[in-house]
Every structure is written in C-alpha cells, then in structure tokens.
Amino acid sequence: MKGRLIYLIGPSGSGKDSVLEAAREALQARGVRIARRVITRSAEAVGESAEAVSHDEFDRLEANGAFALSWRANELAYGIPAQIDQWLAAGDDVLVNGSRGYLEQARQRYPGLLAVLLHVQPEVLRQRLLTRNRESPEQIEGRLARNARFDDTLDGVVSLDNSGELRTTVQALLDIIEG
C-alpha cells in the first residue's frame, strides 16, 4: 500500500463524528479521504455520514466481500467499504472511523496504520451520552466503566483529547496526520 490508513477510535460519545465532520474540508485539502461506514442502524439514528442497512443486507454485503474491514459491537454491525484498498493503493491516505475492539485485526490487515485514540474526560463523556439519549442511564454507566478498562489496554496509539474546543481537537488531529 502506498497510502496510509488512519484509524480513528474512541468510545461512543467521544466526538469522532463531530471531529470528522469539522475536519472534512481540511482533510480533503490535504488529500486525505474519509471512508463512509456502513452500519446496521436506522438512517435517522446513525448520527454520522454513514450508510444504514439492515442486518440481513449487511450480512449479504459482507459475504460478497464489500468490506475491507467489518466488526460487530453493541448489537450493531459496522463495515468499511473495500474501496479504501483502491485509494490506499493509489497513494491516498484514508481516515476511517474504527473500533477499539477491532484494532488488532485492522493492524494485521494494515500493518502501517496510524491509530488515533480520541478520548474525553469521564464527566464530559457521561454528559454527551446522556444528551444523545440513545441509552439508559444504566447502559451509560456500563459504557463508562468499560471505557475506563478498555483504554488502558491499547498500545501503539496516539492519544487525542476532545474534552475541550472542537477546533482545537481538529487542529491537533491535522498535526498528528501531518507529523
């Protein structure tokens, strides 16, 4: 691969979608492509620039090799279109909204990937998850506990704090990609 895969990870509510959207124009100006995920969630609930499909449709796409990367988490299925391999082969850098739990498998397929962990302070994450109103308070507390355990197990990632101003996080992401 001539291009580099930039694998953005972080807990639900850390602001990955907001960062990607805010950075989109600057990333495109730098020649970085942003892959659009396929998710088994309704189009109204996706909350990101993603393609919503049914579980059956996802399984069919996956069986037909439509994804370069795919995983399941939180009762949903996620896929990164196989088109990224063409972009990478052409020398383009590609940013994907990935999964912490799938990082090792992604590294096996793309050994040179740049893993960027987007994190926020626990109290900020709790408030974002509550505001989003997708989960019960008990589910949110479970996510926070899992998040605290999860991030301690990740090696070889560049950490990026998104607890403050979005523009600061976007600039830091651009610096990481250029660095």
UniProtKB/TrEMBL annotation:
ATP binds at G10, P11, S12, G13, S14, G15, K16, D17. It catalyses: alpha-D-ribose 1,5-bisphosphate + ATP = 5-phospho-alpha-D-ribose 1-diphosphate + ADP. Residues 3-178 form the Guanylate kinase-like domain. Keywords: ATP-binding, Nucleotide-binding, Transferase. GO terms for biological process: 5-phosphoribose 1-diphosphate biosynthetic process; organic phosphonate metabolic process. Pathway: Metabolic intermediate biosynthesis; 5-phospho-alpha-D-ribose 1-diphosphate biosynthesis; 5-phospho-alpha-D-ribose 1-diphosphate from D-ribose 5-phosphate (route II): step 3/3. InterPro entries: GK/Ca_channel_bsu (IPR008145), Guanylate_kin-like_dom (IPR008144), P-loop_NTPase (IPR027417), PhnN (IPR012699). GO terms for molecular function: ATP binding; ribose 1,5-bisphosphate phosphokinase activity. Its EC number is 2.7.4.23. Belongs to the ribose 1,5-bisphosphokinase family. HAMAP family: PhnN. Catalyzes the phosphorylation of ribose 1,5-bisphosphate to 5-phospho-D-ribosyl alpha-1-diphosphate (PRPP). This is Ribose 1,5-bisphosphate phosphokinase PhnN.
